[in-house]
Design goal:
The two termini are 32 Å apart. The protein has helices at residues 20-31, 38-52, 59-68, 89-92, 95-104, 108-119, 134-138, 152-165, 172-188, 210-227, and strands spanning 9-13, 34-37, 71-73, 81-83, 86-87, 127-131, 144-149, 201-204. Helix 3 packs parallel to helix 6. The protein has a single domain, classed as P-loop containing nucleotide triphosphate hydrolases (Rossmann fold, 3-Layer(aba) Sandwich). Helices cover 49% and strands 13% of the residues. A hairpin with a 7-residue loop joins strand 3 (71-73) and strand 4 (81-83). Strands 2-6-1-7-8 form a five-stranded parallel sheet. Strands 3-4-5 form a three-stranded antiparallel sheet. It is an alpha/beta fold and 240 residues long. It contains ten helices and eight strands. It binds cytidine-5'-monophosphate. Cytidine-5'-monophosphate is lined by residues 16, 38-40, 42-43, 98, 101-102, 105, 131-133, 182, 186.
Length: 240
């Protein structure tokens, strides 16, 4: 397929706890586009490695899992994920799975092995891709790029509240330490470090409610659409 015919991508990157998963999900639903939660892919490789006794320091074993594991993201029930036919959504969202994902995500061979899987999500009419390197590495030709930030303290508070609401017992200082450790690993790794893509709109979500972030994102998409001066509406019809 000619590169110019590839379905459009909107890239949403940033550290965890900035609300990017929620924004990506809402936007994909609003546009009727596909959704890629790339962090979930790294989490799932970690879970698959644990289940099959593959060491987190064995790049070849991890790559082979990344290429062969059967993963399904339900479009009917957002958030529902199966690995080789078994429901693993709850396990995917555990703090341990995130910490394991962040460790194995620093392995260059694994990142390369997951590239094709991520590109496969690029289907018509378009894709909203959420992660750390969507705008920099995986979809550098994304039409619009966003980078969401918030202080580690704000993100730890948000996560604390989410877990408390689910009646999971956690300590706020431990969550903050975990977030800081993950940020350090994600931003300093040699391959695809977490950083804003060139031209990305940076949004500090700290003082904003989800709907306010969505309003900024919509506004940016409308400005981009208007700047193309095409009759075809890329994102929204005239109601926006
Ligand atoms: O976004 P989420 O918290 O699910 O990501 C888990 C971990 O996976 C991150 O801490 C990061 O190390 C890694 N990741 C990545 N590249 C992505 C998405 C996630 O390295 N595109």
């Amino acid at each position: 397929m000619d590169e110019h015919e590839l379905p459009p991508v909107i890239a949403i990157d940033g550290p965890s706890g900035t609300g990017k998963g929620t924004i990506a999900q809402l936007l994909a639903t609003e546009l009727g586009w596909h959704l890629l939660d790339s962090g979930a892919l790294y989490r799932i490789v970690g879970i698959a490695a644990l289940q099959s006794g593959i060491d987190a320091a064995d790049p070849q074993g991890l790559c082979s899992l990344a290429r062969t594991m059967r993963v399904e993201f339900s479009t009917l029930f957002p958030g529902s994920i199966t690995l080789d036919g078994k429901e693993i959504s709850a396990q995917v969202r555990l703090e341990e799975s995130g910490a394991m994902a962040s460790r194995i995500a620093a392995i260059p061979e694994l990142r390369a092995a997951l590239l094709q899987r991520q590109h496969d999500f690029r289907q018509p009419p378009g894709l909203v891709a959420d992660g750390r390197d969507m705008g920099t590495v995986v979809f550098p030709d994304a039409l619009c790029k966003f980078f969401l930030t918030a202080s580690p303290e704000t993100r730890a508070q948000r996560r604390y509240k989410q877990l408390k609401d689910k009646e999971v017992n956690v300590s706020l200082p431990a969550l903050l330490r975990d977030i800081q450790a993950r940020d350090e690993r994600d931003t300093t790794r040699a391959v695809s470090p977490l950083k804003p893509a060139k031209g990305a709109l940076i949004i500090d979500t700290g003082p904003l409610a989800i709907e306010q972030v969505m309003a900024i994102v919509r506004q940016e998409l409308v400005s981009y659409q208007d700047s193309r001066k095409e009759s075809r509406q890329l994102f929204f019809s005239d109601k926006h």
